[in-house]
Amino acid sequence: MNQNKARQIPFFALILTLAFIFIIIVIFHRNMKTVRPVFGGAFTTDNVVVIDPGHGGMDGGATGVSGMLEKDCTLKISKKLDTLMAFLGIPTVMTRTEDLSLDYRDDATVRQNKVADLNARLKIVENTENPIFLSVHLNLFTQSQYRGAQVFYAPKSPMSETLAKVMQQSLLTALNDGNTRTYKKASSDIFLMKNAPCPAITVECGFVSNPEEEALLKDDAYQKKLALAIAGGYIGYLNETA
Ligand SMILES: [Zn+2]
């Protein structure tokens, strides 16, 4: 189910986005001197970014220490990212824009529905011309002290690792929270990472099992910061591979 986005940007969102652009300029000029972002319609790229808000519908994903569901947070971050990408003139497709499981059927088992959902997401990637796949997730661990955003790359396309490297750096720079995590190869049992036929990464935006980080992840301003970091990482990737 390929959903077209309604790109109605309210005035306040536009103002916030302009503020983000300003921050991008500051961040890139201070920390990534080799990257020279180009904004708006002047930006040229043949790639379409497939933004994938992890989970949805019957699949809530991880549950945070205060009860936040991963599926809700990934959708909020992804929508902010999509708005930002639209402003930057970067074409996108979202795998979902609502709280739902793709290709859901009432008469199917939970497992069948999960498989159908993942297959539908893969189909969206496959049906997109020159896709770059960004899957947005949150992390969870049994011990609450672990925190920090981390990027995992899909091994099928050699460009995935470059994308992960630049994205991890962008997250570390933009969030500046003492996180020392490094990007890693995605485990082979992650369906979309295994099968994506293009540069593909999973951005684990933080740990919902860590109370402070979960509180941040619920915060609208922090979600914007994450979206900005991801957009910045993507621009860094385009510059690195141009
Ligand atoms: Zn997840």
Q: Care to describe what's here?
A:
This protein is an alpha/beta fold and 242 residues long. The chain has one domain (47-241): Aminopeptidase (3-Layer(aba) Sandwich), CATH 3.40.630.40. It has helices at residues 11-31, 70-88, 110-126, 159-175, 191-195, 211-218, 220-241, and strands at 48-53, 92-94, 131-139, 150-153, 184-185, 200-207. A six-stranded mixed sheet has the order 2-1-3-6-4-5, with helices on both faces. The chain is globular and about 45 Å long. The two termini are 32 Å apart. It binds zinc ion. Residues 54-55, 61, 70, 137 line the site of zinc ion.
Sequence-ordered SSE layout with sheet pairings:
Blueprint: H1 11-31, E1 48-53, H2 70-88, E2 92-94, H3 110-126, E3 131-139, E4 150-153, H4 159-175, E5 184-185, H5 191-195, E6 200-207, H6 211-218, H7 220-241
Parallel strand pairs: 1-2, 1-3, 3-6, 4-5
Antiparallel strand pairs: 4-6
Helix pairs in contact: 1-7, 2-7, 4-7
The structure holds zinc ion.
**Strand order in the sheet with the most strands:** 2-1-3-6-4-5
CATH superfamily: Zn-dependent exopeptidases
For the secondary structure, the number of strands is 6
The N- to C-terminal Cα distance equals: 32 Å
User: Helix/strand/pairing class, anyone?
Assistant: alpha/beta
Q: Residue ranges: pLDDT <50 for 5 or more in a row?
A: 1-7, 28-42
Bound ions, cofactors and other small molecules, one mention each: zinc ion
**Helix and strand element order:** HEHEHEEHEHEHH
Compute the CA-based radius of gyration: 17 Å
Summed over residues and divided by their number, the pLDDT gives a mean of: 88
**How many separate domains make up the residues?**
1
The main β sheet shows up as: 6 strands, mixed
Text of the CATH class: Alpha Beta
Q: In the CATH hierarchy, what is the architecture at level 2?
A: 3-Layer(aba) Sandwich
Work out the helicity level.
40-55%
- Give the helix tally: 7
Overall 3D geometry?
globular
- Determine the strand fraction and express it as a percent band: 5-15%
